[in-house]
Amino acid sequence: MGILTVYLDRATKLKDKDTIGKSDPYIKFELEQNNTFKDKNYGDQKSTTKKNDLDPVYEETFHFNIPEIKNMELTVKVMDDDV
Q1: Distance CA 45, CA 78 (A)
Q2: Are the beta carbons of 29 and 45 closer than 8 angstroms?
Q3: Are 2 and 67 in contact (CB under 8 A)?
Q4: How far apart are CA 20 and CA 38, in angstroms?
Q5: In the predicted model, is pLDDT for residue 17 greater than 80?
Q6: What is the 3-state secondary structure (H, E, C) of 26-76?
Q7: For 38-74, b where at least 16 C-beta lie within 10 A, e where not — what string?
Q8: pTM score
Q9: How many Cα neighbours within 13 Å face the side chain of 21?
Q10: Which of 24, 50, 53, 71 has the most CB atoms around it within 10 Å of its CB?
Q11: Is 64:45 a contact under the CB 8 Å cutoff?
């Protein structure tokens, strides 16, 4: 068993998706093991939401418990809290 550690420093030059004000971005991480017959989900984690910020600084660390690194896929999505 091991631990995958992800450090989120910042996001820059995000597009504004709000019609009034600026976006409220957060980052979502999804980890799964892509196997031939059956994928295994190792969870989702999300950052804090940064209100009205198109260049947010997070400085956050995330940990996933995994059995091995083989066939792991980490998906990173930038989301807007209002959308």
Answers
A1: 12
A2: yes
A3: yes
A4: 43
A5: no
A6: EEEEEEEECCCCCCEEEEEEECCCCCCCCCCEEEEEEEEEECCCCCEEEEE
A7: eeeebeebebebbeeeeebebeeebebebeeeeebee
A8: 0.89
A9: 11
A10: 50
A11: yes
**What single-letter amino acid sits at 63?**
H
Looking at per-residue pLDDT, the higher value among 7 and 36 belongs to 7
What is the model's pLDDT at position 18?
Answer: 73
Among candidates 6, 7, 5, 13, which has minimal Cα distance to 56?
A: 13
Alpha helices, DSSP H, located in the chain? none
pLDDT in tens, 29-39: 999 998 888 89
Asked if residue 30 lies in contact with residue 44, where contact means CB atoms within 8 angstroms, the answer is yes
Which helix H or strand E contains 80, and what residues bound it?
strand 72-80
Cα(30)–Cα(41) distance, integer angstroms: 8
